[in-house]
From TrEMBL:
Lineage: Bacteria, Bacillati, Bacillota, Bacilli, Lactobacillales
Function comment: The phosphoenolpyruvate-dependent sugar phosphotransferase system (sugar PTS), a major carbohydrate active transport system, catalyzes the phosphorylation of incoming sugar substrates concomitantly with their translocation across the cell membrane. The enzyme II UlaABC PTS system is involved in ascorbate transport.
Quaternary structure, from the entry: Homodimer.
Transmembrane segments: 12-29, 41-58, 96-114, 126-159, 179-200, 221-242, 254-280, 301-324, 330-358, 370-395, 415-437
Membrane topology, from the record: Multi-pass membrane protein
UniProt xrefs under Pfam families: EIIC-GAT
Keywords, sorted A to Z: Cell membrane, Membrane, Phosphotransferase system, Sugar transport, Transmembrane, Transmembrane helix, Transport
PANTHER family, per the entry: ASCORBATE-SPECIFIC PTS SYSTEM EIIC COMPONENT
InterPro entries attached to this UniProt entry: Ascorbate-PTS_EIIC, PTS_sugar-sp_permease
Subcellular locations according to the entry: Cell membrane
UniProt-listed GO biological process terms: phosphoenolpyruvate-dependent sugar phosphotransferase system
Family: Belongs to the UlaA family.
Protein name: Ascorbate-specific PTS system EIIC component
Amino acid sequence: MDLLNFFKDILSEPAFLMGLIAMVGLIALRKPAHKVMTGTLGPILGYLMLAAGANVIVTNLEPLSQMIQHGFNITGVVPNNEAITSLAQEVLGVETMSILLVGLVFNLIIARFTRYKYIFLTGHHSFFMACLLSATLGAIGFKGVLLVLSGGFILGAWSAISPAIGQKYTLQATDGDEIAMGHFGSLGYYLSAFIGSLVGSDSKSTEDIEIPEKWSFLRNTTISTALTMIVFYLIACFKAGPEFVGSLSQGQNPYIFAIVSALSFAVGVAIVYSGVRMILADLIPAFEGIATKLIPNSVPAVDCAVFFPYAPTAVILGFAFSFLGGLIGMFILGAIGGVLIIPGLVPHFFCGATAGIYGNATGGRRGAMVGAFINGLFLAFLPAFLLPVLGQLGFSNTTFGDFDFGVIGILLGKIGNSLGHLGVFVIMAALLAALIIPSFMSQKDTAINNEQ
């Protein structure tokens, strides 16, 4: 059990996973020892920097969320992947860990022997999905080896298929860089890109917005992010009132606290950008070793934050319009008598920002705004529909927040409750067919959809 826990901790830590992948690639390329060492440490340090930046962002979004809930008198459920995963581990720890390990193995096998050559490197999202699968399949009646193998196959298959579905959009968003989306909000990003292609054919990119000379400082991403967030925080602070904000600020002046939190948020974004650059600088060259020697033409599927530097303006625009969509979705749910899903600022920032990037890639600023807005609506409705499935296990006060978790959880829950084990086996058969058929249709060695 200790050994299994050790491997679970390694595989659920994206920094180590990226480092191991880079090390294997560099060894396959027969690089000298000192280059293997530096090339392995680069992605590890880069991801830890990214995680540190993300932690700063999350830490400073928490008081903003509390101010909004108090100031606007909103009560309900806040979707949070980490919260529900920590709850589930008390009863599903072994199952989740086992599905995670088996899922990674299936992902590598699929990448080696099919045209889905995407290696999913975002370990914490794999861990969240393993938790969702153990909960939903367990509720349907799967147990023991059958639960682990079924959940592991679904995890491994979706880890390979989900990057492929929208890889043509990813190539547009990254200007052809050889990376893929390794994040289980992917369906929302691809939907945003599709919507962008419909509404923004003549819309300029968010990154081409013409700014007069006196406003040229806004081209500095860190400064423009800071100014935007100061407005958000001050409005929330004013609405919540100095007494409530004072309880959050530990005696600091409420408005100073709001401004410092906004500036700290901007610093977190800057740290994320620096970490991303460090990851890409070392991981992509090292990945050539895996792509040429071990798993030919493999493509690394990486965290959504890695895409932020490609369109920094779309990041802020996407966050704002995704949050707006979440608010409107919450009001709609309230009007129809559903559970109130309070917009979680963490999923709306990371997922909304990425939706903005994808919408911008196909439809410019109009695509970024509309695509992120639709993504925000789904981030309200999907957790609401997923909640009853998870509520059967006692997780009634929280739910998963990202797009793919909602789709897969609802699909498994509804079909499983209607058809039992047979329904799940039908889903698994469909995934298997999707993995195998492209190899018969075309004998190309390149990863499916990885061509512009």
